[in-house]
Amino acid sequence: MDEFISLILQGVKLAKDLEPAVQNLATHQNQEMISKLDEIIRVFISARERLSSHQDVSQMLQQQQQPQIDPSLQEYWLRTKMVELFQSQLMAERMSSSSGLENKQAEGGLAMELSGRDVQAMASSSAQRPRRRKDDADKRTMRVPAPRMGNTEIPPEDGYTWRKYGQKEILGSRFPRGYYRCTHQKLYQCPAKKQVQRLDDDPYTFEVTYRGDHICHMSATAPSVPPPQLPEITREMTQSAMAAQPPPWLEFSLGGSGSSMAAAGPSTVRYGKEAEFPVADMADVMFNSGSSSSNSMESIFTYMEGKWEPEEKKN
DNA sequence: ACGATTTGACCAGA
DNA sequence: TCTGGTCAAATCGT
């Protein structure tokens, strides 16, 4: 377990070292940036592997019969988050600087290198149509294992809250496709949507297509801000916050004793009225630097310490 | 009462 | 015209 922690800390340190470079992306070498990103990704992934090989955790995983997430999905998740971060940084830079050329090159380079096709190819084995529809640009498809026990009908949990708004039989598919949008669409005009469909040849796998990005956890009024320091944060609350962790592999790795979580609810995670908005998840803390990015790395530490301390004491 | 889901109707793009 | 995507009324669950 010590090894795991030091790996995480190492990863965080690497990321922190990268932070100054992120702020001058236009002048920074893409190649160098990419290799540093890859290093960070490797560290986190091996940390995750350490964790899952830890006896208690692996026993817990077996008890829960949680499907093992493909490592490529973990990498996919990290990469997409990284790309989101850098693209938002680039946007910010383009807004503030008027000379376009270097920035455009930087953006093109990074985007080509990290996002789009290769990320998709990594996450999905299905051949992507070369032809593009209008909104194909922000379409991300990935395959996720369905729960093998409990209600296998429920779409895989991905850390966001979704509201189903439609279901349709798709020509040539055995299973209907479900249409979901972000629960906070009304309140925060969050445009995120997803489609979930079972594979014909493998009903235990969902193909999930995401469209649009969540903005509901980025706006100042958005629900990502943790509730004001309460006298006591109960284990239950921690768990409901855990339910909102985007990376499923971290979700059950960090998620404590794992009791009711595994076969949770219907298709979306629900929160009580008071806990309607979970605390910011790690991905948000790490990557959604938003406008003020300077403290992002500190907040990772705070976040992780906050999450880990009770666990360490518990056992 | 309120919010989520279901499901047939409707609409728009290919 | 066909199909996938969305709407919205009815229904359900808390």
From TrEMBL:
Listed Pfam families: WRKY
Subcellular location: Nucleus
GO molecular function list: DNA-binding transcription factor activity; transcription cis-regulatory region binding
Domain WRKY: residue ranges: 157-214
InterPro entries: WRKY_dom (IPR003657), WRKY_dom_sf (IPR036576), WRKY_plant (IPR044810)
Residue segments, region Disordered: 118-141
Main location: nucleus
One of the protein's GO biological processes: regulation of DNA-templated transcription
PANTHER family: WRKY TRANSCRIPTION FACTOR 19-RELATED, WRKY TRANSCRIPTION FACTOR 30-RELATED-RELATED
Name listed for the protein in its UniProt record: WRKY transcription factor 78
Organism field: Manihot esculenta
